[in-house]
Amino acid sequence: MTMTSFTGTRPMPTLLRAALVAACAALPLAAQATRVATGGTTLIKNATVLTVTKGTLENTDLLIQNGKIAQIGKNLASPAGATVIDATGKYIMPGIIDPHSHMMSDAVNEGSLSVTSMVRITDVLNPTAPNIYRALASGVTSLNILHGSANTIGGQNATVKLKYGRPVAEMLFPGAPPGIKFALGENVTRKNQQQVQLPGQPAASRRYPATRMGQEEVLRDAFTRARDYKAAWDDYRAKAKTDKNAVAPRRDLELEPLVEVLEGKRLVHAHSYRSDEMLMLLNLAREFGFKVQTLQHALEGYKIASEIAAAGTGLSTFADNWSYKIEAYDAIPYNVAIVMEKGVLATINSDSDERVRRLNIDAAKLIKYGGLTEEQALRTITYNGALQLGVADKVGSIEVGKDADIAIWNAHPLSVYANVDKTFIDGEVFFDRQKDLAQRSEKEKERADLERQDPNQPPGARGRPVQPAVPEENR
Amino acid sequence: MTPTFRLAVRAVMAAALAAPPLVAQRAAPTTYAITNAKIVPVAGPTIEKGTVVVRDGLVTAVGATVAVPGDARVVDGAGLTVYPGLIDAYGSLGQASATPAAGGGRAGGGGAAQAQLAAAAALLNRPAGSAEKPAGFSPELKVVDQLHPDAEALAGPQFAGITAALSAPTTGVMQGQSVFINLAGGDAQAMVIKGSVAQHVGFTPSRGGYPNSLMGVFAALRQTLLDAQHYRDEQAAYARNPRGMRRPEFDAGLEALQPVLARQQPVVMLANQQREIERALDLGKEFGLKVVIAGGSEAWKVADRLKAENVPVLLSLNFPRRVAAPAPDADPEPVRVLRERVEVPKGAGRLASAGVRFAFESGGLAAWTDFLPNVRMAVENGLSADEAVRALTVRGAEIFGLADRLGTIEPGKIANLTLVRGDLLDRNARVTQLFIDGAPVTVRPPTVANAAGGGNAGGGNFGGGAQAGASGTWTVTVLVEGEEKPVTFLLRQEGTRLTGTMQGVLGTNEIANGSATPDGQVQFTAGITLKSGTEEATFAGTVEGNAMRGKVGIVGHEPGLFAGTRPAGGGQGGRPRPPGQ
User: Is pLDDT above 60 for A114?
Assistant: First the structure.
């Protein structure tokens, strides 16, 4: 039995299934271990290619050159020096894009103030977080890493490619438009009193706002200040043309990103649940002249599908996850299907380091609930996310000229039996199942070797002193 | 006390009575000659047998054939090696606040109550941070104003051969300015070699108020530096033409940052892991700062960039190691942690090979008696003996622009000397005597009370044997969403910083934003995965002995509880249930 003979219709042998479970459980021991340089040119032969935008292509070859998809077609010639992969019986799909994640962040919430637009996820990314590798093993290539939902206006997002082990600078998605997190509802009003009283903090430190009314006021106030700030700079720039002594206004890192929102240069991703709060935000955005790029979670989106569509706003939600708090009860699994029918660009997100490993299954649920086509379902975790993040010209579908951010699956990715063989980003292999399995014993050996070394011995073992070396007579 | 030295002391006393006062306010200067000693001047080749002459606090002659002046008190150096006085390139020696109660922050019976009082006091003194006035930002603070020499606290570093040190602020984000001091004790003013040496930046967020996360720390640092630039431009505009312009408001903090912006004052940034160092370097680049990295346990991974950007490192000698045998029900330690313990002692050798300048610093060591043994460990792990001695002497002086007066044995330099029986890097070597500012200092083996190292709060014991503060492998039960979740914390406390890993059914993640107080209050965040998704959980609790308990805050969830234990001295800890069950 070989890997290549798998299809989605055949049950997986127990042994292999056990190995795959282990793959998810084991920590990748070295970031570089499973990264395979492809030498720039790779020819994947005889696969079923799920382009997501241009249909499904059977028995098709895909050529990667210089990190891009160079050719798609039948019986492509293999350029000199190309790595050739036989993908007979396998599937190629675009790398999965998760539009809502908090992975690889050394901080998620700066919840101290109602408006923290000055903080940036890019300042706190951890490019070695093991969860990155696990996501790669599930065919995920890009994330929208968002600030948490503790406050009305949160921090600036980071759109990343999961180039595990590379420096942060190489993981930031080149050319991705910047974004910012907003949050409405319970997490902001903190009805659940989730704030722990910390040592040195007074017991009754409830941060404004405590109601949804207050959230609207925080937004209105912040954007009014941003308008004033922009006006002050416009005045200065006009004045500086004639007056050499004009002193520039103080730069304000809180208001600068909000000016970018007003100018349409920064995308708003708004955590929201209830239809009334979503309508409030859409109306306020219209009043101030900006667009809300996405409503995140938006479990009641189906109630106001037409209004969301009219605003040109996208929706990013869970396939079937709800009832974990009061505002998350009025939910139905048909949310995506309904809003899509009304013309809303919809995606499935994970918001979870665990669910991100099976977004393909969440997409498959949309076929059961709402009758989406396979391609529509796949788009909710690929192309639609690329559109929502402003990177659809580079990723999200398999088209010539796009970045080679793809995954080879051993079965149709909407099958529960499907697993990822290889994940490519910019044409380089960042996950390779065969290599991972082959390296297991090496890594066990490394652990054993390390355990034996002196700094890993507990005090008392092998003559290591239990107490600092203070001479007897001075104790 | 050796007979020679007793003679010398008697001579000093005689000289003090006889000699005319040369400089008022200073201890009576006098002349010494250390003869027949092996001399490692660092400025030149080792002298197998020679003499060092010290007069009026300065080295006046060094060499194989130097004549002993007639008025010199002779110290017979046979069997001794004379080194330039060792330097601890980063710590908090000489500060009163840094050495809380003897024992370096032991949590006694009334620990919790004292902590409450301290917290209340802190609240009164320091308003919670806001966007306008972020918490932990006090660049105008100067350690030189807070020197409080305590002979007892200096005994530990003196026993380790240390004669001079950079004494830096210990808390906050933009922490204030350090002082370079001689460790003679006595008069605080006389200790000072240079008053405002560097600005110090730590990335640990404050507890409560803005910023309370690492993200906020960076945003507030960026805004403060932008404000300092704006302040500079406004002041310049006003200076050019004050007439008709409302005068810019004075701001002590922004004023204090002007030498930093002008690259006249270096900025020491506390950063250990690769990504922490890269973030620090990025911030430095953004504002054109003269960056020095302190800590630097993974600096070797960034060696090429440090070399290219000419950034020196104050390399911590506080090497990580397993502090106790883990409990049987603890998750296995991540390989990353196992590997780090083995790799960190190799860092010095790697930095030297890459051509990165570095000086050793004590880094909140649990005990001063580990200082020299850990230098030896660095040598066993690939650092040349020559470079090791340099990193203990001249490098620290060079990095802070003091090499013209300190760090080598050369005529005209400050007479700081460390006398060692045998070779400094030999396991059996013993520091026998110091000269600081040309005056002999007797070293004493440390007692338990002053062995606790680093001067950084929290370096001492918590009544848990050799475990420093919250360090150790904790088996923990977290009560969240009405369910008990078994997890393992692997924590490491260095000074007031807390780092580590959380493993178990809530997911595997490094902890972040961690801090710990000397009285055992810990706080950190960690990503945890619940049914609804991955959330950032804030753990805030108290360590008492080998038990830890506290609360868990999660945005959008009911608060949770946690309780854990660690094995005492290699024993077995059981997984406790959180309170309120």
Answer: yes
Calculate mean pLDDT across residues B283-312.
98
Q: What is the mean pLDDT of chain B?
A: 85
Instruction: Give the model confidence (pLDDT) of B169-182 as tens digits.
Output: 988 999 999 999 99
Query: Which tops the pLDDT comparison, B367 or A382?
Result: A382
**B538, B416: one domain:** no
Instruction: Measure the CA–CA gap between A39 and A67, rounded to whole angstroms.
Output: 10
Contact B298, B347 (CB under 8 A): yes
Q: Who among A201, A252, A458 is closest to B324 (CB)?
A: A458
Contact A87, A46 (CB under 8 A): yes
- Is B113 in CB contact (< 8 Å) with chain A? no
Whether residue B258 lies within 8 A of chain A, CB to CB, comes out as no
Residue ranges making up the domain that contains B515:
472-565
Residues B520 and B435 in one domain: no
Question: Are both B489 and B390 inside the same structural domain?
Answer: no
Query: What is the residue-wise DSSP string for A261-287?
Result: HHTT-SEEEEEE-SHHHHHHHHHHHHH
If asked whether residues B443 and B367 sit together in one domain, one would say: yes
Same domain, B229 and B280: yes
Structure ipTM = 0.89
CB < 8 Å from A in window 30-89 of B = none
Cβ contacts of B538 on chain A, cutoff 8 Å: 196, 198
Instruction: Examine residue B119 and state whether it is found in any structural domain, yes or no.
Output: no
* Domain C-terminal end among B451, B485, B501: B451
Instruction: Give yes or no: residues B327 and B240 share one domain.
Output: yes
Domains observed in chain A: 1-95+396-439 (2.30.40.10), 96-194+206-395 (3.20.20.140)
pLDDT at position A312, please? 98
Nearest-by-CA chain B residue for A453: B342
What's the whole-number mean pLDDT along residues B148-176? 93
B59 strand-pairing partners: B54
User: Choosing among B534, B552, B557, which should be mutated to test the A contact, i.e. which has the most A CBs within 10 A?
Assistant: B534
Q: Which residues of B touch A124 (CB under 8 A)?
A: 213-215, 218, 279, 512
Shared-domain flag, residues B446 and B501: no
Nearest chain A residue to B451 by CA distance is A470
Structure confidence at residue B569 as a pLDDT band (50, 70, 90):
low
Q: In this complex, do B523 and A199 lie within 8 Å of one another by their Cβ atoms?
A: yes
What number of CA atoms fall less than 13 Å from residue B432's CA on the CB side? 21
Does the beta-carbon distance from A118 to B533 stay under 8 Å?
A: no
Instruction: Identify whether residues B193 and B324 lie together within a single domain.
Output: yes
- B91 and B365 in contact (C-beta within 8 Å)? no
B416 to chain A, closest Cα gap in Å: 25
CATH number of the domain within which B510 lies: 2.40.128.120
In this model, does residue A175 exceed pLDDT 70? yes
CATH number at residue B290: 3.20.20.140
Distances (CA, A) of B153 to B104, B370, B434, B452: 10, 16, 16, 9
- Whether B197 maps to a domain, the answer reads yes
Residue B268 lies in a domain: yes
Q: Which residues are CB-contacts of A10 (< 8 A; sequence separation ≥ 6)?
A: A417
Least confident of A115-124, A155-164, B6-15, B304-313: B6-15
Q: Rounded CA gap, B400 and B159, in Å? A: 24
Contact list in A for residue B527 (CB cut-off 8 A) is 102-103, 105, 108, 353
* A463 interfaces chain B, CB cutoff of 8 Å: no
CA distance B77 to B74: 9
Task: Encode pLDDT of B471-509 as tens digits.
Answer: 889 999 999 988 999 999 999 988 888 999 999 999 888
* H-run or E-run covering B81: strand B80-84
| Domains of chain B: total | 2
With an 8 Å Cβ cutoff, is B239 touching chain A?
Answer: no
B118 domain residue, yes or no = no
pLDDT at B111 > cutoff 90: no
